[in-house]
Structures are given as C-alpha cells and as structure tokens.
TrEMBL record:
<dbReference type="InterPro" id="IPR011989">
    <property type="entry name" value="ARM-like"/>
</dbReference>
<keyword id="KW-0498">Mitosis</keyword>
<dbReference type="InterPro" id="IPR032682">
    <property type="entry name" value="Cnd1_C"/>
</dbReference>
<dbReference type="GO" id="GO:0005634">
    <property type="term" value="C:nucleus"/>
</dbReference>
<dbReference type="Pfam" id="PF12717">
    <property type="entry name" value="Cnd1"/>
</dbReference>
<dbReference type="InterPro" id="IPR026971">
    <property type="entry name" value="CND1/NCAPD3"/>
</dbReference>
<dbReference type="GO" id="GO:0051301">
    <property type="term" value="P:cell division"/>
</dbReference>
<keyword id="KW-0539">Nucleus</keyword>
<dbReference type="GO" id="GO:0007076">
    <property type="term" value="P:mitotic chromosome condensation"/>
</dbReference>
<keyword id="KW-0131">Cell cycle</keyword>
<dbReference type="GO" id="GO:0000796">
    <property type="term" value="C:condensin complex"/>
</dbReference>
<protein>
    <submittedName>
        <fullName>BMA-HCP-6, isoform d</fullName>
    </submittedName>
</protein>
<feature type="compositionally biased region" description="Polar residues">
    <location>
        <begin position="959"/>
        <end position="992"/>
    </location>
</feature>
<dbReference type="InterPro" id="IPR016024">
    <property type="entry name" value="ARM-type_fold"/>
</dbReference>
<dbReference type="GO" id="GO:0000779">
    <property type="term" value="C:condensed chromosome, centromeric region"/>
</dbReference>
<keyword id="KW-0226">DNA condensation</keyword>
<keyword id="KW-0132">Cell division</keyword>
Length: 1280
C-alpha cells in the first residue's frame, strides 16, 4: 500500500487544483465536451502553476499515478478513495485539459509547450487507472488532444525550432504553395511568424519529458479503452508512425517489451515506437487493421511519410528500404505469435498493397519483393488464399492492378510453388475463396472500391459490378478445380500475354521469359497445351479447337508482331528463353523472327533482336552452324544503322561475339564464322566498320595486334588472321617486318584473299620499312605485276602497295616519274600481249594450241585488263600518249556484237559457238555478290540482233570508215550527236591502229577467249579511263547506256550500271539525261542487276546526285512489285529506312503524279508525267506503265505502300489534291470521263480516298469536306 500512500501525498501537493475549479465549471466542461477553452482560461487561474517547482510536483503526480496503475492493474477501489479524500478526478481531468490546450496554442513560448506536455502526461497517467472509462474519466476528444500535444512536441524535436509571432507587421509575400489559397483583402498586413531555434537545454528537457509521457502511454495501452474509439486508434497510430521518424536507423530495436522497466531501458524513440506498436496490437484493442494500414502498409508501398508517392523523376531512397526491412521483421515477429485474426489482417494488407502499388517500374519491383517476403512467413493456408486472390483480381478492369498481379505472380510461383501443389482438399481450408472474397468486401472498403470501381451511391452499377465479379470468381474457381492453383496462375500469366493493355502484355511476356529459365516451370508451361487454357473463354470457339497446339510458342510469336514496341521487344526476350527447348526444325523456322526484327522500325526492337541473336550464337554456336548465316545477315549489317546507339551496340556485339573470343581462344567456333566473313566482301566491309568504331571508342587496343601476330603461323586460320591485321592496320601501327617475310612465302597467283591482305598491310607500313627491304619489295612487286602473276582480285591491292613503296601516288610525289615509267612499260607490254591473243593470222599455226588453253588465256586477259585499268588511274597521261589501250577495251567490250557482224559479212573464217559465261569474279567488289547469284547465268534474255544495222548500233564502238558516216536510225538525238563526234576522235579511225579491212581479211579474232568475264572487266577498265578523261566519258556514256538495253550478259550489264553510277558522281549532268535507261535496270531479268541498281541508285538519290523524279521515281516505287522477295524487301528497306528518313515528303509530293503515270493518263498540270508518256511512246523498252483494270491490284499495292507512310495531314492534303486535280478536271472537261484509262484513274482515286479516311471519325470527314468546299466543287465529294 506504499504506492497508494505516495499517490495521495502527490495529490496533496497539488490540492489547490480541486478547490480552484468549482462544481459548475466541472459539469459545464464535461457537458460541452471540453470545447470552451477561452472562457475557462479567462475565468480560472491555477495557483499551482505559480510555484517555482510546479513541473516537479506535476511530474511526481504522474509518476505515482502510472506506478500505482502498473502495480494494482485491475483494482477500481482507488476511485472511491480519491472521492472520499475530496480529490475529484474530473477536476484533475479539467486541469490536464487546461494544460494541454495552453500548450497547443499557436504562438506560445517553450515553457508553455512543456506545460502542455505535462498536461498530456497527467491525463494519460490518470487514464491508466483501472476503471477510467467506467468513471467517465476517459474521453475520446481529450485523449486526441493529448495525442495532438505529443505530435506537436515530436515536430519541435524533429525540426529543432518553434514558431513565435512577431509584433511587427509586413506585407504578405507571394507563395508558390499549392495548399495555400490566395488571401484578398483591402489591407494585406498580417502578423509575421518567425522561427526561434530550440536551445540545447530545452531540447533535452523536452526529450526527457516526452519519454515520461511514453512510459505512461505504455501502461495506458494495457487498458481496454480504445476498442470503441476508432478516431483515437487512428490518431495513436499516426503518432507512433511519426514518433518512429525521430531517430530511426538500421539499429532500431523491433522487440516487444512486456514490462515497464524493459520499456524504460529503451534509448531511442523508434525503439519505443515499435514496443508501443506491439502492445497496441493486443487483441483487447482490436486495432490490428489500423496499425497495419497506417504504419506498416505505407512502408511496404515505399510511400513518403505523408502517404504520397514520390515524384516521377525521383526513386525511393535507401531510408525507405531500411524502413521496409524493419517492417518485414516486425511482421515476422507478429506472425510468430500465431494470432489467426492478426495473420488474416496481414493477408488483407497484402491484398491492399496489390491494389495500391503505384504504376511505376521502380515501385512495382520493390513492392512485389516486399509482398513476397511477407508471404514467406504466412501459413500455407493463407498463401493459397492469396493465390486465389491473385486469380480473382487478375481480371480486374484496372490496368495497373492487372500489371502488378503479373509482376508478383512469377516470384510468387517460384517461392510458393511447392505449397500451391498441395491439394486443397487435404488441407481442410478455413476460408474458401468465396468466404475470403466476402470478408474482403466487408473488412476492406478500400479493396471493395478498387474491385467494384463504382460509386457507393449508384446501386445499379454496384450490382452489375458485383455480378460480374461473382462470374469471374466462379470462372476462377472452375479453373482451379480443373488444373490446380499452380497451373491456374501459369495459365493466367500466359493469358495475360494477350491482354488488351499493351503494358500488361509486355509485363506478362517479360515474366514468361523469367519463368522459362526454371526447368520445372518451363516443363509446366510447355505442357499447358494439354490443359484447358481457355476454359473460361467459353465464347472463344476457335481457341477451344486449338487447345492441342503449342500455346506458349504460338502466343510468343503472335506477340512478336504486336503493334506496340515494348511488347515486340518482350516477345523477343521470351523467344530467346524458349529457344533451347525447340526442336531443330522449329529453331530454323523461328530464327526468321529474330532476323526480321533486326530490321524493325523501332531501334529498341532492333537492339534487342541483335543482343538476343548474339547470345544465342554464343550459346548454341559450338553445336550447330544454323545461326552463323542468320547472325551475319542480321546483326552485322546493323553497323550501318541510321541510329548511332544501334551502331554502337552492333560494333560492341561484333567485338564481344567474334573478335575477343578469337583473340583469347575461348570460343573455337568463332573461327568458323570469321571464315564466312572472310569469304564475303560485304561482310568484310561491315566487320571493318565495326572494328574502326570500337577502336575509336577505345574498346579495341594494340594488344589485339600482338595477339594476332602470334597466330600468323596457324595455317588453318592464316587468311582470317591477316584479314584482321589488315583491318586493324587502318588504326594501329604494325611492324611490317613480319608482313614482308610472309609476303615472300605467298604465291601471287593464289586466289585466296591473303595476298591482298598482306599487300594492304605492307602498303600502310611502307614508310616504316627499311630502304633495303623496300627496294627488294619494289623489285618483287614489279616483277609480279609485269608478268601478270597476281590474281585478278588482288591486283588493285598489290598495285596500291607498289605505289606506296615507290612513293608514287600523286603527280608531285617523289616517285611519280618511276611510277609513270613503270606504268608505260606495263601498258606497252599489255597491248602487245592483247594483240597477240585476240588477233591471229588466218594461216597461223598456233590456233590449235590457243584453243586448248582458252581458259588460261581468258584469265590472263582479265589480269591484263585489270592491270591496265590500275595503270591508267595512277598515270592518266598515258591515255593521251597511247590511245590504243582505249580502242582495244572498246573492241573487247563489243566483241560479241562485232562477232555477229563479221560473221554476217563473211570476214570471219571460223564460226564460233555460243559464248560461255564465266564463273570468275569480274571485280573484287562484286565477287561476293556474284557468288550469291549463280543462277543468273541461265536467266539472260538475248536481244534480237539479226540485222546488221542493229549490231552496229548495239556495239557503238569501232565502226568502219564507211559506216561511221552513215546515220544510225536506231539511236536517239543524243546518241546521233555522239556518233557524229566519234568521227573526229581516235576511235573513229580504226585503220590507223591496224584494225582496218585489210587487217581483218588477213587475221581472225579469237572470240573464244573474249568471255563474259573478260568483257565485264573491260567495262570496268573503260569506266576507270572515263573517270580520268571527261571527253572519253562524253563519248562512252551513250554507248554504255545502249549496252544496258541490248547486252545479253548480266555480268556486263551489272558492271555498266556500276560504271555509269560512278560517272554520275564525277559528271552529274552528263549522266542525268540517261537516267531513264539506268532506271530500266530495275526491271532487268537478272536479280543481280536489279539489286545492284537499287543499291547504287539509293546512294545517288540520298547524296542528291540524281533527282527523285521521272522514270527513276516510277521504277523505283514499282520495284515493290518485284517477283523476287529479296529484291522487294531490299527495295522497301531502301525507300523506308534510307530515303524517306532524309526526304520525308518524297511520296507525298509525287503521289498524285504516280497515280497519273501508272494509269497512263496525261494532264496539263503534270508536264513531267506527259514527258514520261512521250518517252514511253518513243522507247517502248523503257515503259513502266501499270494502266488498265487488269493491273489494278498491282497499283493498289503501290498506293497502300506509299499511304502507310503518310500522317493525317498528308492524307487530308492528298484528298484535297485529288479533288482539285482529278474531280475538278473531270467536271471541267479536261479529262475525258469516257476514256477507259480515266475511268481506271477515277476508280483508283476512290480507293485512295477510302484508304486515307477509313480510320477517321465522321467529324474528321466533315472537316475534310468543309476544307474541300473552299477549293473545288463539293458535289463529287458528297457522292464519295
């Protein structure tokens, strides 16, 4: 009874309180629920507050009240004893209220704050006595005011300063705060609030006083007083949350305190906050939902302390993660108590988290991880309940909810899959799915609002939503009963891949990719084709019929064609994860998906496809070469991508996939891929660009040179090693001594590319080679070149190396004279050999010998012609000093036509059989391309050359003196002028060069050696000569253009296209008049020529050497209709990915012009189209018309291709132009409506308008009609 005695002593020390408050004020305060503080403070003054030690007295009173409550626990006799001693407990409540309200005033000093804090302690300590509620001591409002005082003190301790009102006045400044409303009065002079810093002594004292109040609160929470005071529960939970923030850290204690002494030993406020939360969660308060909802859930959601989401550009800081870890440990401690009600509350919190998670990637991942960690502590029964909950809300109408379910489903399955496999019947579940749903609806109003999505006042809508939810629940239960929870969640994830929301589809595919890495789950997913995946899509009959199909694979491939970029990218990732499980035939089939997406319009998809293909190559390349060609034709070309980020990625992938493994010998199969690169010229160019880019980025260093030089002795990979050394010599310095030594071991006639590689390395090291070695090399190179011992594919490289060694590049170089003398000797020797090979006396005896060696002789001719072309390039002056070289090149190029001419006039003694096409490469740049087109030798269309005149005009060169003066009726005006000019040039005087009639009667031409490869090489030689002499170019371009139309060999035509396009860069105006003939090659019978022309014209148009107009435009667009799929795709790539990027209006500006041209309709506004029609009339071989109803589908394909590149504004503009230039022209009589071509044009225009406007709303069409009303007759549009 000592505690009671000391309690009454403490009451005696403050006994004046009970006499200073009369009974009337006591009754009034309780009746008004403590609402009139101003009147009470004005009337009553407490003398105890005037004492110098009043704080000590009041603190002693609080301590005795708390200690007595702790000791006696449930005794209520104290209330009667207090009354008998004239200590009215209600008056003590009023006194505490007075102190609390005084401390809560807005502009008071620190001493008043302390008074308010002691008042809160008095009231809470008084309420600690058993029976406080029964004796009307506990009051909801007064308790909340006490908590407000505690929150105020916590705020002072957190900020370190308190606000005091200054007496002076000032003008209110503008504020940017969104929460403050503008204050508009005549006089805006208000009191200004200033802030005073708390002193160290005041702060320390407030901390100790707050700790004392928390001690009383700890005892208070052992009483059953808050179970019916919902608002008090919320206020207390908010205070505990804020109290935790004062000194929270990773070292904060989360343990529960059962005794007051243990609680008092806790040092930190955060430690005390968790201890109070443990006591607060006792069953007697029934507040688990409040604590978890107000304190725990916001930390699991990574919300701010104001329960808001961080700004978009901000990410959750480390402190939030620390809070989350603390809350997870707190939940674990609470679950260990095995309170079924509290565990169910935790489950409801997790469900709320699923609804409330912000729809942001940084939040989703962190929140999902938190939920999964909590689920790890729950009993199996509740885990299965949560699985049913996921299936239920997976059909929610909110995209964010469905997206989070997908985010959490995969880690949930991976962690709790073994629990989901247990049969629900064996577990005797307490709550079935329906009960859980009903309790969710009643216990969590927030969840109900999220699921129903309807307003509370709208009963009709609520009933509909509930009915829909019940239907979804029944469907979900049906699926679970058939295939189990585990498979049901997998089915849900797979079905989400076809969700109507692109965001959900993307997340589902990403989760599928993660699941496929687990062998067990992958097996289940692949076996889903045997389960009723579409069991709750009863209306989807087609899906029911396709249940036995590979659902997973079909879903992924379907999504790879999705309209949304992120979904396509996710589908590629999923297909990469699935690739290892596919059969060999399926792998070959679906590699095309990666191949196509490497050319996707989106750079994200292109980059992902390249990365996936590279990883697949490294994973499966050792076992199969299936991926080699796909990777080389898909990833390697991305080095030419228009986006710099894609170029960087492609070059990095090339380095990591091919170069580094080859240098480190970690992946042997990369040598197989490098061998394929070395054999293909286009691959070599792309690899060179990749290496140069990586060297520029600093990722490739000179260490690579050292590693490669060590591998030079590897005869198996010697070509690859020297190819890489050749490429790297563009950037790094290489010791040329090893290249020189290796050069002497080579055979120049070897057709392997190693000769060219070593020659290029020597050329770049020429300045660093010693003089003695250089002289020896000059002698060696000179001998091999003059003896034509170098293979034709390497002559250019060796010639360049020779010129570098001689220092003879350029007219002003030191070795220019030496180089000129060498080239002159080479040319004289070459011409002599050419004359001996091509012309033989009729009575000669060596004919049989030459006939047997025709193949070797043809190869020699190719080398000689190639050497002559190089010599002319290094010494252009030789063209004027020795014109025979140009004449002999003309003869060789036109030999097939001359053969027919001479045969007809009887000057050739021996009839020659058909010319055999050569399989040899005609130039190094086209070597790889020709190898890809071996079938073209059988696709030649020989023109009709029966007449003598046609043969002369087709050849164009070496006309006899008699025929040179005769007009050629088969040539156009420009070609006639060129023919007349030929009379004055050296080529029009064949007799002066030994090729006159007398010579021809005494000699025969060895046509067997003039193979297509020889003629094709002669074309290139002529092109090199024309690049050095503009006069020659003027005379040759018309003839070369003619040869494009009449020459029967695709190798010759391909080289002519290359020559003309090169000349176009040097002499643009000269070639422009023949652009229609060049464009006609887009319809060439040879696929090689068509693709070569596409590539060259694309480059010329992009660099603006050729205009996008006329026949080039019409034929280029019509290439979309090519019969060869590869050509069609290449043409589309050139138009969309290259030209349209640089010229966005290239289709819009010429669309109607193309419509007129393809229908063969002339119009006064389209002069270019009219001129093109006239050209078509004169030259039927150039015609590219698609007129007539029979070709309507072809025209519509072209229209659709162009229209899909238009935006809405372009489509409206096209519609207006059709009205102005077609419909108005018909109304005005400029176009004959009875002409079948005009009818086809009109029908095409109707189709075009439909294609442009069928996706627009009616309001958009009305807007279009109003615009048209201002410009033309509206009647025709009304019909439309």
């Amino acid at each position: 009874m000592e505690e009671k005695y000391k309690l009454f002593e403490a009451l005696d020390d403050v006994s004046s309180i009970f006499s200073e408050v009369n009974d009337e004020w006591t009754a009034a305060c309780f009746e008004d629920n403590f609402s009139d503080f101003a009147s009470f403070a004005h009337s009553i003054q407490f003398s105890v507050l005037q004492a110098f030690d009043y704080l000590q007295r009041l603190s002693e009173l609080c301590f005795r009240l708390m200690l007595y409550a702790e000791k006696t626990n449930s005794s209520t006799e104290i209330w009667h004893e207090i009354a008998r001693k004239n200590f009215d407990a209600k008056k003590l409540c009023i006194f505490a209220w007075y102190l609390i309200e005084r401390g809560l005033q807005p502009d008071v000093a620190c001493e008043d704050r302390k008074v308010g804090l002691i008042g809160s302690r008095i009231y809470i300590s008084l309420c600690c006595l058993s029976g406080a509620q029964a004796f009307n001591i506990f009051n909801d409002y007064l308790f909340q005011r006490a908590l407000d005082q505690l929150r105020l003190i916590r705020g002072l301790l957190s900020s370190g300063h308190l606000s005091i009102t200054n007496n002076r006045v000032d003008i209110v400044q503008n504020t940017k705060s969104k929460n403050k409303k503008p204050f508009a009065v005549n006089n805006s002079r208000v009191k200004q609030t200033v802030f005073e810093q708390l002193t160290l002594e005041d702060g320390t004292e407030l901390r100790y006083m707050l700790c004392d109040v928390l001690d009383s609160l700890f005892v208070f929470l052992n009483r059953d007083l808050l179970s019916s005071a919902q608002q008090c529960l919320i206020s207390l939970a908010v205070f505990l949350q804020q109290l935790m923030q004062l000194d929270f850290s990773e070292k904060t204690s989360l343990l529960q305190c059962k005794r007051l002494s243990d609680f008092q030993r806790l040092r930190g406020f955060s430690d005390r906050s968790f201890a109070l939360m443990h006591r607060f969660l006792d069953n007697r308060h029934a507040v688990s939902g409040v604590v978890y909802g107000r304190v725990v859930m916001p930390r699991l959601l990574f919300w701010t302390f104001e329960n808001t989401v961080l700004p978009t550009n901000a990410h959750p800081p480390k402190l939030m993660t620390t809070y989350k870890e603390a809350m997870l440990n707190f939940i674990r401690l609470r679950i260990e108590k095995n309170s079924e009600e509290e565990i169910f509350t935790i489950l409801l919190v997790l469900q709320n988290v699923c609804f409330r998670c912000p729809d942001r990637s940084d939040y989703r991942a962190k929140v999902a991880s938190s939920v999964i960690e909590v689920l790890a502590y729950l009993p199996p029964k509740h885990i299965r309940d949560f699985a049913n909950f996921l299936l239920l809300i997976g059909a929610n109408s909110k995209v964010a909810v469905r997206g989070f379910v997908i985010e959490i489903a995969v880690p949930f399955v991976k962690q709790c899959g073994h629990i989901l496999e247990v049969s629900c019947k064996k577990e005797n579940r307490t709550y079935d799915c329906e009960q859980m749903h009903e309790e969710d609806m009643s216990s969590g109003k927030e969840i109900s609002m999220e699921v129903d999505g309807a307003e509370e006042d709208d009963d009709c809508n609520r009933q509909k939503v509930r009915k829909k939810e019940k239907g979804k629940k029944a469907i979900s239960n049906n699926l679970v009963r058939k295939i189990g929870l585990y498979n049901a969640i997998l089915v849900f994830v797979l079905r989400s891949c076809n969700d109507k929301s692109p965001m959900v589809r993307t997340r589902a595919l990403m989760q599928i990719a993660i699941l496929l890495h687990d062998e067990n789950i992958r097996s289940r997913l692949l076996n889903l084709s045997k389960t009723p995946m579409y069991v709750y899509c009863c209306e989807d009959e087609d899906a029911k019929k396709q249940r036995d199909d590979p659902i997973l694979l079909r879903t992924i491939t379907t999504r790879s064609l999705d309209a949304r970029v992120s979904t396509r990218r996710a589908a590629i990732i999923a297909l990469e994860s699935l690739f290892s499980t596919l059969s060999e035939s399926q792998q070959a089939e679906f590699l095309t998906v990666f191949q196509q997406h490497c050319r996707d319009p989106s750079l994200l998809v292109r980059k992902q496809a390249a990365e996936s293909l590279s990883r697949l190559l490294l994973s499966f390349g050792a076992n199969t070469n299936m991926l080699d060609k796909v990777w080389l034709t898909s990833v390697l070309p991305l080095i030419n991508d228009r986006e710099q980020s894609v170029v960087q990625l492609a070059s990095k992938l090339v380095l990591e996939t091919l170069i580094l493994p080859a240098l480190e010998d970690t992946t042997p199969f990369v040598w197989r891929i490098l061998e394929a690169v070395e054999q293909e010229v286009n691959h070599r160019r792309l690899l060179l660009r990749s290496l140069l880019h990586q060297a520029k980025e600093g990722e490739l260093t000179e260490c690579a040179i050292e590693s490669l030089l060590k591998k030079c002795d590897d005869l198996k990979n010697v070509n690859i090693v020297w190819m890489l050394l050749n490429f790297l010599s563009n950037v790094f310095k290489i010791d040329g001594s090893q290249a020189v030594r290796f050069w002497y071991t080579l055979n120049g006639s070897d057709e392997s590319n190693v000769v060219g590689y070593v020659a290029e390395v020597i050329a770049r090291c020429a300045d660093r080679i010693s003089e003695a070695s250089r002289n020896q090399l000059i002698e060696n190179f000179s001998t091999k070149l003059t003896e034509f011992g170098i293979s034709e594919g390497h002559i250019a490289h060796v010639y360049y190396a020779f010129a570098r060694l001689c220092n003879g590049i350029g007219d002003d170089s030191a070795g220019a004279k030496q180089m000129l003398e060498f080239n002159r000797n080479l040319m004289d020797k070459s011409l002599k050999i050419l004359n001996n090979i091509i012309f033989h006396p009729i009575s000669g005896s060596g004919e049989d010998l030459l006939t047997q060696e025709n193949d070797k002789t043809a190869k020699l001719l190719v080398r000689i012609i190639n050497s002559l072309g190089e010599a002319v390039q290094y010494s252009p002056i030789l063209l004027s000093t020795n014109p025979k070289v140009f004449d002999i090149m003309q003869l060789i190029m036109a030999s097939d036509v001359i053969q027919q001419q001479l045969t007809q006039i009887g000057t050739l003694c021996i009839a020659v059989s058909s010319v055999r096409p050569s399989t040899a490469a005609h130039c190094s740049d086209m070597k790889g391309f020709v190898k890809q087109q071996p079938q073209q030798t059988d696709v030649q269309q020989v023109p009709d050359c029966n007449s003598y005149e046609h043969c002369v005009s087709s050849a164009g060169f070496l006309q006899t003196s008699k025929s040179s003066n005769q007009p050629n009726n088969d040539m156009d005006g420009n070609q006639k002028a060129s023919a007349s000019e030929n009379q004055e040039c050296r080529t029009s005087q064949p007799t002066s060069h030994g090729l006159g009639p007398t010579f021809l009667r005494q000699h025969t031409v060895n046509m067997e050696v003039l193979t297509p490869a020889v003629r094709a090489q002669a074309v290139l030689a002529i092109g090199k000569m024309c690049l050095q002499d503009e006069k020659l170019a003027k005379k040759c371009v018309p003839v070369l253009s003619r040869q494009l139309l009449v020459n029967s060999n695709h190798l010759v035509r391909s080289n002519i296209v290359s020559v003309i396009c090169d000349l176009c860069k040097r002499y643009t105006l000269l070639v422009d008049r023949h652009s229609a003939i060049v464009a006609s090659c887009l319809k060439d019978p040879s696929t090689l020529v068509r693709k070569q022309t596409l590539m060259l014209l694309t480059h010329l148009i992009k660099e603006q050497f050729v205009r996008w107009a006329g026949q080039i435009m019409y034929r280029f667009v019509s290439t979309i209709l090519d019969e060869n799929k590869e050509v069609r795709e290449y043409a589309e790539m050139c138009l969309i990915d290259v030209l349209l990027v640089q010229f966005p209006n290239m289709f819009v500006n010429h669309f109607l012009e193309c419509v007129f041209y393809f229908n063969s309709v002339t119009h006064s506004l389209w002069s270019a189209t009219t001129n093109a029609m006239e050209d078509d009339t004169e030259r039927q071989d150039l015609k590219c018309s698609l007129s007539g109803f029979r070709l309507k589908n072809a025209r519509m394909r072209l229209y659709r291709f162009m229209i899909k590149t238009f935006n809405d504004e372009n489509k409206f503009m096209i519609g207006m132009r059709i009205g102005q230039e077609v419909y108005s022209a018909i109304v005005d009589g400029e176009l004959n409506i009875y002409d079948r071509r005009v009818k086809a044009l009109l029908e095409d225009c109707y189709e075009v308008l439909f294609l442009c406007f069928f996706v627009f709303k009616l309001s958009d069409i009305d807007l279009f009609l109003r615009l048209m009303h201002k410009t033309s007759n509206i009647s025709l549009y009304r019909k439309f």
